[in-house]
Design a protein that fits this description.
By secondary structure, this protein is mainly alpha-helical. Helix content is 56%, strand content 3%. The chain has 2 domains: 59 residues, no CATH class; 36 residues.
């Protein structure tokens, strides 16, 4: 017997319904406090949607298509400009440690090169030393 079934009755599984939902991305909106970034994002979004203001009635665009296009464009441009927020899962995690981790991640690609391997090991040691024991 399925765990969601009772005798003589079938209960719909909640897990099946959740698969159809789209994932919403979070962005680092604190960057919008910088007026340069804010005006850049406004200009990019405004430039992408300027043609929508001059739409002909001949085009077969439904309101759903317009909303979908709008949402996709906002998500694309915001992810390019703002990026995803860095989640600090531990209280002791600092921005400095996260920056060292990014540096180590970029050096891992050159790990097979003798010089790159040495740099990768040094970066790894820096990360380990900066984390509290």
């Amino acid at each position: 017997m399925h765990p969601h079934e009772k005798e003589g009755m079938v209960v719909p599984c909640v897990e099946e319904e959740q698969e159809t939902r789209k994932h919403r991305f979070k962005f680092e909106v604190d960057k919008l406090k910088d007026p340069n970034i804010l005006t850049t994002l406004q200009a990019i979004i405004g430039g992408r949607f300027a043609p929508l203001l001059v739409l002909d009635n001949d085009q077969d665009l439904t309101p759903d298509d317009l909303v979908e296009t709008f949402n996709e464009t906002i998500s694309e441009e915001a992810s390019k400009l703002l990026g995803k927020p860095r989640v600090k899962k531990k209280k002791w995690m600092t921005d400095e440690i996260l920056a060292l981790c990014d540096q180590r991640r970029s050096l891992k690609k050159r790990q097979k090169d003798p010089k790159g391997g040495k740099q990768c090991r040094e970066a790894n040691l820096k990360v380990k030393r900066s984390a509290p024991v």
